[in-house]
Design brief:
The chain is mostly helical and 116 residues long. Helices cover 41% and strands 3% of the residues.
């Protein structure tokens, strides 16, 4: 993986200050904890889930009312590109509630329930 120049500089600074930080820890210094209000303000300022328009409510089926990313919501609520007239349903090879191709790690991390 190629690192950006900014990330390389930050890594270099972390290595250069490691001994100093270990010594501070040995003397009992701890990074000051944030209050609940400070944490909430920080989340509202920086976390993507707290930003306006970062989630949208699903309008369909079992997962109706779930608030998820607008991009995923668009995919799940859009019309299928599969033409039902071109599919032979007389011999079904697989049965699924929903088939999401390419969900990969993202879907596993979220531990999503079955959406349909």
């Amino acid at each position: 993986m190629a690192y950006t120049e900014e990330l390389k500089q930050l890594t270099k600074r972390a290595k250069e200050t490691r001994a100093q930080r270990i010594a501070q820890k040995g003397r009992g210094w701890e990074f000051p904890r944030m209050s609940l209000l400070q944490k909430e303000n920080r989340l509202r300022k920086f976390h993507p889930s707290y930003k306006e328009g970062s989630s949208q409510e699903l309008r369909a089926d079992r997962s109706k009312g779930y608030s998820i990313s607008p991009k995923i919501c668009f995919i799940l609520e859009s019309r299928s590109r599969v033409d039902p007239d071109k599919i032979d349903l007389s011999s079904i090879a697989y049965e699924t509630d929903v088939l999401i191709i390419g969900g990969g790690h993202f879907a596993n991390v979220l531990n999503w329930p079955i959406l349909w």
